[in-house]
């Protein structure tokens, strides 16, 4: 796929360890980096440093001081999350889980790392497990990522054979086992407690919090769940230090380090790049993605997956970090943007999205279980030109009723965010689906 090979186009600055901690080891032929090559490129040096020359608390503090935030979309500070794990030495069973489910539409960043740099994730988990005093780790992998599963399992076997996993790693006295667990393909498993339930063999429903996984996680034991890209940042932070990591972002960014960002849609160069936080969306769109293909015009865009709100072309000057995107009214999410061209009808696009979100609801809470299918029913009617004059008000009511803090987890708020923004910016397209003779509402209109 082009997205798997366009990390560093030939006409751009070559990847370097000093500026591209995630991707500098990648091969131009997009083949996986196995153990011998990974070690020749300084692989596992950070793990050796962490296990033999750093105390557990020092690793946690280093990651906390670096300002590393979760790269799965929520953006919670990683070091703070690690600090929530209990320090009681009697709790000798702890788990580290890697969230590799990656079912966010338009997002494929973790896939690249797992397919081409599997040892980077293994090393990141080894260091993180040492910091958390976790003796066992699981990579919870999206079932459709067959190649990633193969490459990760091979990397784990290579690491075991080389003594980089298992007992007494680097003679440090630290033991760590790592396993790949493939899921059945459920979007809701991106929520960490639903992931834990699925790993335990239960239905993938989110859990009530508190207690949080750091106290009561998988099989009732202290557990930390981190995203693939998050864990892959850890080796470079340990190896090169906090000041270096903070220096990678552009001036003006409140987030530190680099981020895998991308653009899909009718752009000239769809792909994925490791870029510093704080670049503008316009630079990402025009210089890296090459702008729209000839004959197409940018109508709107999403900054980070289907669960983020739509933005207009004039919002391209926003800076790509959490606070920068928040200033224009939505979330950065996964940082992989979608360009919507002027041939796309927004009602049809939203109907397609809401069908996905409705299907992927776990059904645990009423607003999500019933509200998302209602939105699909209304959007289908508008798409056919059979909508009522009350339908748009009803959709806006659903956006309100399914918003943040009103459902059991964040699934429904993410599902309705693009719907609300689409009506805000393209209301006339929704109004065009109203049949002139209809007056009866499909359901009672909710107050906005």
From TrEMBL:
Catalyzed reactions per annotation: a quinone + NADH + 5 H(+)(in) = a quinol + NAD(+) + 4 H(+)(out)
Highest taxon in the source lineage: Bacteria
Enzyme Commission number(s) of this protein: 7.1.1.-
Single GO MF annotation: oxidoreductase activity
Region of interest called Disordered, as start-end residue ranges on this chain: 1-20
Domain NADH-ubiquinone oxidoreductase 51kDa subunit iron-sulphur binding positions: 347-392
SUPFAM superfamilies: Nqo1 FMN-binding domain-like (SSF142019), Nqo1 middle domain-like (SSF142984), Nqo1C-terminal domain-like (SSF140490)
Cofactor: FMN; [4Fe-4S] cluster
UniProt cross-references to SMART domains, sorted A to Z: NADH_4Fe-4S (SM00928)
UniProt keyword terms in alphabetical order: 4Fe-4S, Flavoprotein, FMN, Iron, Iron-sulfur, Metal-binding, NAD, Oxidoreductase, Quinone, Translocase
NCBIfam families: nuoF_fam, PRK11278.1, PRK13596.1
Function: NDH-1 shuttles electrons from NADH, via FMN and iron-sulfur (Fe-S) centers, to quinones in the respiratory chain.
Similarity comment: family membership: Belongs to the complex I 51 kDa subunit family.
Name the record gives this protein: NADH-quinone oxidoreductase subunit F
UniProt organism field: Ectopseudomonas hydrolytica
Organism taxonomic ancestry: Bacteria, Pseudomonadati, Pseudomonadota, Gammaproteobacteria, Pseudomonadales
């Amino acid at each position: 796929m082009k997205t798997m090979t366009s990390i560093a186009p030939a006409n751009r600055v070559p990847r370097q360890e000093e500026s591209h901690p995630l991707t500098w080891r990648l091969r131009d032929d997009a083949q996986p980096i196995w153990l011998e090559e990974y070690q020749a490129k300084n692989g596992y040096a950070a793990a050796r440093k962490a296990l033999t020359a750093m105390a557990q608390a020092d690793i946690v503090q280093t990651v906390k001081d670096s300002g590393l935030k979760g790269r799965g979309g929520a953006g919670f500070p990683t070091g703070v999350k690690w600090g929530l794990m209990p320090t009681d030495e009697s709790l000798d069973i702890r788990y580290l889980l890697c969230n590799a489910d990656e079912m966010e539409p338009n997002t494929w960043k973790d896939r690249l790392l797992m397919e081409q740099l599997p040892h980077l994730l293994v090393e990141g988990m080894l260091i993180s497990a040492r910091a958390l005093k976790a003796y066992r780790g699981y990579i919870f992998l999206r079932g459709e990522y067959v190649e990633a599963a193969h490459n990760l399992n091979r990397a784990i076997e290579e690491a075991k054979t080389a003594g980089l996993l298992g007992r007494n790693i680097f003679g440090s006295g630290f033991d760590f086992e790592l396993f790949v667990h493939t899921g059945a393909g459920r979007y809701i498993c991106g929520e960490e407690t639903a992931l834990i339930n699925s790993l335990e063999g239960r239905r993938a429903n989110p859990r009530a919090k508190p207690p949080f996984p750091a106290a009561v996680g998988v099989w009732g034991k202290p557990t930390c769940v981190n995203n693939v890209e998050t864990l892959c940042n850890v080796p470079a932070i340990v190896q090169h230090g906090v000041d270096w990591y903070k220096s990678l972002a552009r001036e003006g960014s409140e987030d530190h380090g680099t981020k895998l960002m991308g653009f899909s849609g009718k752009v000239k160069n769809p792909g994925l790049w490791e870029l510093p936080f704080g670049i503008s969306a316009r630079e990402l769109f025009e210089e890296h993605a090459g702008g729209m293909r000839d004959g197409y015009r940018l109508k709107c865009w999403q900054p980070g997956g289907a669960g983020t709100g739509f933005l207009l072309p004039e919002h391209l000057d926003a800076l790509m970090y959490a606070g920068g995107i928040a200033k224009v009214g939505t979330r950065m999410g996964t940082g992989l943007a979608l360009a919507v061209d002027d041939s796309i009808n927004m009602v049809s696009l939203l109907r397609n999205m809401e069908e996905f979100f409705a299907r992927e609801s776990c059904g645990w809470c009423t607003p999500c279980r019933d509200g998302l299918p209602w939105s699909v029913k209304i959007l289908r009617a508008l798409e056919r030109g059979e909508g009522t004059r009350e339908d748009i008000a009803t959709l806006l009511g659903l956006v309100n009723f399914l918003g943040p803090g009103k459902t059991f987890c964040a699934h429904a708020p993410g599902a309705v965010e693009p719907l609300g923004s689409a009506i805000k910016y393209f209301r006339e397209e929704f109004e065009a689906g109203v049949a002139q003779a209809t007056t009866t509402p499909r359901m009672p209109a909710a107050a906005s």
